[in-house]
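Handoff note, outgoing to incoming analyst
You'll be picking up this chain. Sequence as last confirmed:
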Amino acid sequence: MGKKTRNDAIFVKPNSIKLKKPKTVKKSNKVFQKKDLNSLSKFSLASTILILSFFGLPVVTNFLSENFKTDIEVSNISKKKFDLTFNDKKIVNNKKVDQESNLENVYDDIDIFISEEDNSNTIRFSASTIEQLFEDTKYNLKSVKETKLVNIGNSIDHLPKEMKKIESVKKRKNLFIQIVLPLIIEENTKIRLDRKKLFSILNKNNNSKSDKNWLLKKFKQYGVKNNDLSTLKIRMDEIPVSLAIAQAAKETGWGTSRFAQEGNALFGQWTWSGEGIKPAGADSNSKHKVARFKVLKASVKAYQRNLNTHSGYKEFRRERAIQRDNDGKLNSLDLVKFLDKYAETGVEYTKILKQIIQQNSLTEFDDVKILPTTKKLKNLI
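Most recent structure output, in case you need it:
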C-alpha cells in the first residue's frame, strides 16, 4: 500500500482486525488489465503485419516490375545535358562550340551541281503566266503583309526569262519577291519544325531508334563533328526572310542575272566540282564556277545550309543564337553585319544589303508564315 489518504480509513471490529480495500483500487486494476490487453493486441497485430510485409515484398516487387515496366529502346544519355545545351545562354560564349565542321555530306539532300541538260526537266513559265497565276490565286504582297500568311502552293521552279524586259522597277521587284518569298518561307518552316523536333527528342527520358537515327542524319546535314548537341542547336536555325530576299536580290540583280536565269542560282554560290556556270569576268586560271541548281527551291536550301555550316559564318550564327536567347526574334539589320565574308567587297557588301532591306521594307516579311492546309500543320507551325 502506498501513502494513505483520508479516503483510505481503517475500520476496527471487536476480536478482529480487517483491512478493507477501497473500491477505487479494484476499479483501477481492471483498467490497467484492459490497457495491457489492448497494448498486447496492437503489438501482436503490428508484428504480424511487419512479418507478412517482409515475406510479401518480393512478390509485390516482381508483379510491379513485370506489369509496369517501361519499354526502353534507346537510352537518351543527352537528357542530363538538355538544360545546359538548350537553356544556358553562356553556350554562345564557349569557344569550343561551332568550331569544327565536316562538310562532306551537307548537300547530299539537295539537287545541286547539275549539268545544263539536267536543268530542262521542269516547266519555265512566262512572266505573264506567273502574274496571271498569282492573280487567280489572289496572291499579292499587300495581302501577305496584312495576313502574315503565304501559300507555298504558289511556288515557281524557274524565274521567267522576261525579267529584264519588265520596264517598271517596282513591278519587277514585286514579281521577284512574290516568286522567292514562298520558297524562303517554306525552307524556314522545315528548319523550324526540325528545331522543334530536336527539342522534343532531347527533352524525353527515353528515345526510340528512329529518334536516334534522325539525330545522326541532322548531324551530317549540318556538318557537326562528334555529335555535339550545342553546335547542332546553333546551326539548326532559320535565316531571316528579309535577309534572304536582300541577298537574292543583290546576287541576281532582282532576278535578271545569267546565273539566276540559266542555273536557278539565287545566291551566287561557288563550286569547284566542275559542274556550274563559269563567270564571264573570271580569269583563265580561276577554277571556281557558280553552282547550278535544278530548281529555285534547291538554291534556297543550299544557301541556308551554307550559312548554317560554313566556318566563314560562325560569327553570324553566334549572333543569331544570342538573339534567340534574348527575345527569340531574329533581327536581320543586326545580323547582316556578320556577312562581310560572303562577298569580296566585305563590309561594303553588308551595307548594300542593309540598304536593300530598308528601302524595300523587307522586314515586314520576317514574321510571315505558310498558310496551313491542315489543322495538324497549323498546330505545328
